[in-house]
């Protein structure tokens, strides 16, 4: 002890942190020593700094990022930790979807849907567009597009999701409602088609199988991938949802 200050080694033991961690937190400005010896560079801490050090250790054990911990120590705990909680919930939901998909593969093997080549006419459509922040955001954005279309439609409209072949951080998504008075034209052409039965978040299984078929048969896909929604998710259990996947084909030269 020096004038009621605690040397870094003793302070580290008191707070269940390593000396290396304390030096790192000092470098980030999270936990600055009360005194640094000018000659030796040795660090000393006040006993009342132990609370902040223990908070840092606790939050790091919960995988809270250091930048957020800095906000907590500055007094913005509720807002900062609320964002971390929301991020963790989103990650947990993503992992649960991944687990469900993996369990389907384990139970039934890799999908081998029947693929057919079909000719589709052009359609007049109403379009709703948005941009997803990565693959995990596609479901939310697609639902948002559907919700924007439905209020102006009567009966049970034919809805078609349009998704690019390339996956990036920003993914343009569109949903088309087939209408004779639609403002846009959805092109027709030749398509490879397969049917997916099951939750929407497992459609990637059928899409991968369909893309594999295209590659094996010398049909370069051109995109966008179309998802033709047959079932009403409001009245159909997720494992019974029927979706037709269609990929525009370009004949190989």
TrEMBL record:
GO MF, any single term: DNA binding
InterPro entries: AraC_E-bd (IPR010499), DNA-bd_dom_put_sf (IPR009061), GyrI-like (IPR029442), MerR-type_HTH_dom (IPR000551), MerR_fam (IPR047057), Reg_factor_effector_dom_sf (IPR011256)
Pfam families hit by this protein: GyrI-like, MerR_1
Keyword DNA-binding listed: yes
Keyword DNA-binding in record: yes
Domain HTH merR-type: 5-75
Alphabetically ordered keywords of this record: DNA-binding
PANTHER family the record matches: MERR FAMILY REGULATORY PROTEIN, REDOX-CYCLING DRUG-SENSING TRANSCRIPTIONAL ACTIVATOR SOXR
Protein's recorded name: DNA-binding transcriptional MerR regulator
Biological source species: Longispora fulva
Organism phylogeny: Bacteria, Bacillati, Actinomycetota, Actinomycetes, Micromonosporales
């Amino acid at each position: 002890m020096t004038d009621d200050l605690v040397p870094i080694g003793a302070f580290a033991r008191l707070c269940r942190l390593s000396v290396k961690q304390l030096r790192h937190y000092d470098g980030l400005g999270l936990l600055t020593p009360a005194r640094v010896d000018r000659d030796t560079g040795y660090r000393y801490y006040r006993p009342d700094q132990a609370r902040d050090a223990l908070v840092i250790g606790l939050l790091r054990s919960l995988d809270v990022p250091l930048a957020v911990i800095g906000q907590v120590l500055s007094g913005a705990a509720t807002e900062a930790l609320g964002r971390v909680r929301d991020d963790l919930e989103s990650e947990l939901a993503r992992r649960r979807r991944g687990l469900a998909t993996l369990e389907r593969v384990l139970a039934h093997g890799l999908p081998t849907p029947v693929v057919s080549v079909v000719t589709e006419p052009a359609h007049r459509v109403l379009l709703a567009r948005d941009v997803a922040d990565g693959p995990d955001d596609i479901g939310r954005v697609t639902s948002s597009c559907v919700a924007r279309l439905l209020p102006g439609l009567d009966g049970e409209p034919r809805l078609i999701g349009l998704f690019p072949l390339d996956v990036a951080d920003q993914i343009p998504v569109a949903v088309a409602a087939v209408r004779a008075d639609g403002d846009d034209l959805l092109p027709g052409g030749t398509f490879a088609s397969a049917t997916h039965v099951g939750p929407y978040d497992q459609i990637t299984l059928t899409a991968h199988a369909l893309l594999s078929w295209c590659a094996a048969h010398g049909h370069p896909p051109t995109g966008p991938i179309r998802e033709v929604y047959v079932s009403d998710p409001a009245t159909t259990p997720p494992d019974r949802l029927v979706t037709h996947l269609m990929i525009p084909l370009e004949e190989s030269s």
